[in-house]
Each structure stands twice: as C-alpha cells, then as structure tokens.
Design brief:
The protein has 315 residues and is an all-alpha fold. The protein is 52% helix and 0% strand. It contains twelve helices and no strands. The longest helix has 35 residues.
C-alpha cells in the first residue's frame, strides 16, 4: 500500500494568482467599460465567504479526511502514483464533481450549502471565491468513496480536487467571451459557466461541469449561452443581503422552518429536505421545471430552443 503520500496544497499556492487575476479583471473593466461589473459590498461578501470556507476546512477537514483514510485502510487496491494514475484520478474526480454539483441543485439539503455560491447578482472573479462554510454537513464526501475504494490514495484525490477548483476560478468572468470552438466543445469555459449562474428559466439546472463540459453533454444537462438572451445572475428569489452569515445559513434556516411546520406528515418533513428547491407539500411553490413550463406558456415560440429542448409538447 502507498504509505504517507503527500501532495502540495495547490489551492493555497494559487492564492497570489487569484489576487492578481482579480486586480487585472478590475482594471480591465475600468479601462474598457465592459466585461462585467464590481460592487464593493458584493465583492467583499464573496471574499469573506472564501475566507470562511478556508476556516471551516481547517476546523472540519479532519472529518472527511479521516473517513477517506478509513476507506483507504480497508481497500485491497492501490493504483500507485504514476502520472497516468494521477491523470485518470483527475478525470474521474471531475465526473464526481459533476454529480455532486448536480445533487447540489436537485437535493435541497445539498443546495443549502451550495446556494451561497449563486447568491451574488454579479459575475466576476470574486464570485468564484463565494464558497460554502457547511459542505461537511451535506455528506457529499460519500461520492468520493468509490475513487478511494478503487485504489486512488486520498491525498491524490484531494490534490486532483484542488486542481479542479483552481481551474474553475478563471471561468467566473464576463471579460472573456467565447473560446475557440474546439475548446468550447470539450472544456468548461466562461461562456458555459455564465449559463450555470443564470436565473433565467432557460438557464436553470444546466452546465454542472467542473473542468470537462462533456459530462453535461453526455448526461443531457448542457445549454449553450444563448446570444439573444443575456444571463441574469443570482437566485430565482434573491436574498438581497451582503451579510455573510445570512448568505451562509439562510437556506438551512429556511429548511428548518419548512420542515417544522405544524400539521405535516413525517414524509412531508423529509421531502422538504431532499426534494429540489421550490418543492412544497401543498404545491404553493414552484420548482425549476414549473418555472420553465410557466415561461413557455407565455412564450410558446421558444419551445425546442436551447434550455427548453426537452420540454417540447409540455408548455
């Protein structure tokens, strides 16, 4: 078995690059008068959320790592540390990221942790740093378990996850339009990820990729940036606050309030935790599919266009 394997903390090493890139983007926007917008309070909130994410990782990171090392002790497999193994781990971990990200939009318990990343109504490089403080409590560490049981060392898996996060930093910008067609076909890009951050009905529940956009194309969740429709950033119902505590915990509080309403069945209480955002026991709220259908009722000419291609005949 591979013992005492270590890899550098690439995310910490990348911090100077993050800072330099944010400053460069800000200067670009100020000079060119295009390519995005910065709002001081919004950017500061994103930076505070990023700092809180680092702090929560320091305090709670032992839980996930301890779980991974336990799995490593019981697996009979060890794929070693060759370059090809690292590359394979990177690709498979990106597939893992796709599903964790998709769960984060379709399971409210996981959405409660991920929602803060979508809470900004601006889209710039500081948005990439608006990260969760509560990821440990979603138990999405379980999705990484197969990688370790297959023989990838936990340190390698976390190293590849760090590289994945670093890649995703640069796609949070409006300063870059479209990349070359061959690159857009395979890789996640600013154009693809702008779609993911949109609250437009067309763009809901799309483009979950981390590095390789091919996962969305393979699993039917890809929507291209539609030239006729500018992305409207934020949440379906924006929370309207720059308070990082509210940003971090507002959805957890909302779940508690919903699940503890008087007169509900145990099933209803569970459904408020595990159903997609917008689910309600009495149908008084609307999930993303309902939002799309309502939009098509008002705009039937858009049936079959990007973002609505799977809703033909269901306006």
């Amino acid at each position: 078995m591979t013992e005492d394997l270590t890899y550098p903390d690439v995310v910490n090493f990348a911090v100077p690059f993050f800072i330099a890139a944010i400053l460069a983007e800000l200067v670009w926007i100020l000079i060119k008068r295009r390519g995005g917008r910065y709002e001081t309070r919004d950017a500061l909130t994103s930076l505070l959320m990023g700092a809180g994410n680092v702090a929560s990782g320091i305090v709670l990171g032992f839980i996930a790592y301890g779980f991974f090392m336990l799995l490593w002790e019981i697996t009979p497999l060890d794929l070693g540390t060759s370059l090809w193994v690292v590359l394979l781990c990177f690709v498979l971990d990106d597939l893992r990221y796709y599903w964790v990200h998709r769960f984060g939009h379709r399971i409210r318990w996981v959405w409660a942790s991920h929602v803060n990343h979508h809470s900004s109504q601006h889209y710039n490089l500081t948005t990439a740093l608006r990260q969760t403080w509560t990821g440990t409590f979603t138990f999405m560490m379980l999705v990484r378990a197969p990688l370790i049981l297959l023989g990838f060392h936990p340190a390698m898996v976390l190293f590849c996850g760090g590289l994945n996060l670093i890649y995703q930093f640069w796609i949070h910008t409006e300063a870059i339009g479209r990349m070359p067609r061959w690159f857009e076909a395979v890789m996640n890009t600013p154009s693809h990820h702008r779609v993911h951050h949109g609250r437009n009905p067309r763009y809901l529940d799309a483009n979950y990729a981390g590095v390789f956009i091919v996962w969305d194309k393979l699993f039917g969740t890809f929507v291209p940036e539609y030239e006729k429709e500018k992305v409207d950033y934020g949440l379906v119902h924006n929370i309207g606050t720059f308070n990082p505590l509210r940003v971090a915990f507002h959805e957890w509080v909302a779940i508690w309030r919903d699940a503890t309403q008087p007169g509900l069945t145990m099933r209803d209480r569970l459904m408020y935790c595990v159903m997609p955002p917008g689910w309600s026991h009495d149908g008084s709220r609307t999930m993303s599919d309902g939002i799309k259908r309502k939009h098509l009722e008002a705009h039937p000419e858009e049936i079959g266009t990007p973002g609505f291609t799977d809703m033909a005949g269901r306006p």
